[in-house]
């Protein structure tokens, strides 16, 4: 899912990231949200296996050639 996406110029840039997730065997849940300075928001979902617990934030830079 994405919101605020218009021209490609609004898609590129630095994104703040927030996430949570868990995995226990084959059962998992988790979301990752990215938002840049233009207001573009990306929400990603992941499927994992094994044993994992995650909560945190980072930054990601997206560029286009």
Question: How are the elements arranged and paired?
Answer:
Elements: E1 2-3, H1 8-11, E2 13-25, E3 27-36, E4 41-45, E5 50-62
Structure, described:
The protein is mainly β. The chain has one domain (2-57). Helix content is 6%, strand content 66%. The protein starts with a strand and ends with a strand. The mean pLDDT is 81.
Number of strands: 5
Provide the spatial order of strands within the biggest beta sheet: 1-4-3-2-5
Encode the helix/strand succession as letters: EHEEEE
Main β-sheet, in a few words?
Answer: 5 strands, antiparallel
Q: How many helical elements?
A: 1
Instruction: Tell me the strand percentage band.
Output: over 45%
In total, the number of domains comes to: 1
| Amino- and carboxy-terminal Cα gap | 23 Å
Estimated helix fraction: under 10%
Give the averaged pLDDT, no decimals. 81
Shape: elongated
Low-confidence stretches: none
What radius of gyration results from the CA coordinates? 14 Å
Give the structural class.
mainly beta
């Amino acid at each position: 899912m994405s919101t605020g996406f218009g021209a490609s110029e609004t898609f590129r840039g630095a994104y703040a990231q927030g996430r949570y997730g868990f995995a226990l065997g084959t059962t998992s849940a988790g979301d990752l949200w990215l938002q840049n300075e233009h207001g573009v928001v990306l929400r990603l979902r992941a499927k994992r296996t094994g044993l994992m617990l995650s909560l945190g934030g980072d930054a990601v830079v997206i560029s286009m050639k």
